[in-house]
Amino acid sequence: MALTQPIGTVPQKPLYQKMQKELMEKINSTDIGPAGLGGKNTALWVNIIDHPTHIAGMPVAVNICCHVSRHITKVL
User: Fold this and answer.
1) CA-CA distance, 71 to 52, in Å (whole number)?
2) Which residues are CB-contacts of 39 (< 8 A; sequence separation ≥ 6)?
3) Residue-level pLDDT at 33
4) Three-state SS string across 23-51, please?
5) pLDDT score, position 1
6) Helix (H, G, I), strand (E, B) or coil at 58
7) Angle (nearest 5°) at CA 44 between 58 and 23
8) What pLDDT score was predicted for residue 29?
9) b or e along 13-28 (b: 16 or more beta carbons within 10 Å of the residue's beta carbon)?
10) Surface-to-core class of residue 48, CB atoms within 10 Å of its CB (0-12 exposed, 13-18 middle, 19+ buried)
11) Nearest to residue 11, comparing CAs of 36, 48, 45?
12) ∠5-35-32 over CA atoms, to 5°?
């Protein structure tokens, strides 16, 4: 269920709406950027989904890297 929610989905509970906004601001303020190469947009969206489940079935994050992120060098 967590991976089928479209980007931009807003939870009905105001607490989760507030948490999504706060998390997005904090994640993007790290300046990690895409693939850890620096930049202002680290995350495009944060989804908080409220549904009863066993804790083992709850994904926390999905990290996808491509070939270029393993072979690039960053000049500081």
Assistant:
1) 41
2) 31, 32, 33
3) 82
4) HHHHHHCCCCCHHHCCCCCCCCCCCCCCC
5) 43
6) coil
7) 60
8) 92
9) eeebeeebeeebeeeb
10) middle
11) 48
12) 95
Which amino acid is located at 44 in the chain? L
The token duo for 3 is 């991976």
Give the residue carrying structure tokens 């998390």: 23
One-letter identity of residue 15: L
CB neighbour class for 1 (10 Å; exposed up to 12, middle 13-18, buried from 19): exposed
Q: Which residue has the tokens 């992120």?
A: 69
Count of positions (residues) in the chain: 76
Name the one residue in this structure whose structure tokens are 């009905």.
Answer: 12
Q: Show the tokens assigned to 19.
A: 């948490």
User: What type of residue is 29?
Assistant: S
Tens-digit pLDDT profile for residues 36-76 = 778 888 888 887 777 777 777 766 665 556 655 666 666 66
